[in-house]
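Sat 14:20. Reprocessing the chain from the morning session after the first attempt stalled halfway. Input below, unchanged.
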Amino acid sequence: MSTVSPSYAKEIQTPAFGEHLDGTLRKQSGKLVGILNGIDSEVYNPATDQNLAYNYDTKNLAGKAKDKKALQDEMHLPKRTDPLFAMVSRLTRQKGADLLVDALENFLVQNNVQVVVLGTGDQDLEEDLSSLQDRFPGQLAVRIDFDEGLAQRILCRRRLLHDAKCL
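Finished this time. Tokens:
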């Protein structure tokens, strides 16, 4: 048996999250494994990713700023030095897209930031994000689509800082 992460595999073995199956899951715990969702660091490596306009690594960061500008161009955002936040996801409540929609307006009003969203999903969430994009054209860029190359360009920008390949 597999779950979406090691922590979830542990959680579902408790009464709080096991939905009355926790006892059975604990008895079968030797067969239960959590496979962590995450970014493939070989595919999403900014030093070698062919989807990026400019490659970079920990020894030469020059390409990182150039990639940000290229992404801003592609997403029709003005070239600014403000932080750029990104989300590549199915736009569903299960993935938290509704939480993003609920918080995004205040976040954009209160902060000098840019946000890029890529994905498809629930029509009402897609429409809400598109409406927010119309209201915040210099800060929010939404692409309702599945585009693997664009996803890689976005994800290389937002890689976790503790990963040596991610800058």
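The chain has two domains: 2-34, 62-157.
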